[in-house]
Write a sequence for this structure.
């Protein structure tokens, strides 16, 4: 996998300017350009910040294209991480009830 090329492809697909990704990731535009061109390899911490700026997780970044999690599901997953254990349990029961009603 070419990390730089994948970053660039995701950025272009999401129509986000390189400057915006660099600013949100706390890196220079020049450094991002070097990463995208394969001249530099980001640390895992920098890659995580770039993924955050792209609105994806590291797991999504490294997953295959056909396994990509839809943005709306990814957004929900991020929200669930902020729930208390009690709230998460309530949500799990709600989802189970919805699935049962649907017949899954």
């Amino acid at each position: 996998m070419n990390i730089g090329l994948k970053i660039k492809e995701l950025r272009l697909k999401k129509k986000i300017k390189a400057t915006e990704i660099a600013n949100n990731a706390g890196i220079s535009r020049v450094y991002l350009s070097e990463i995208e061109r394969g001249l530099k390899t980001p640390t895992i911490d920098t890659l995580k910040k770039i993924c955050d700026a792209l609105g994806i997780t590291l797991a999504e970044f490294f997953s295959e294209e056909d396994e990509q999690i839809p943005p709306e599901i990814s957004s929900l997953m991020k929200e669930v991480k902020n729930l208390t254990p009690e709230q998460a349990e309530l949500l799990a029961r709600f989802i189970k009830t919805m699935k049962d009603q649907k017949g899954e």
Notes: DSSP finds seven helices and no strands in the chain. The first helix runs from residue 3 to 13. The mean pLDDT is 89.
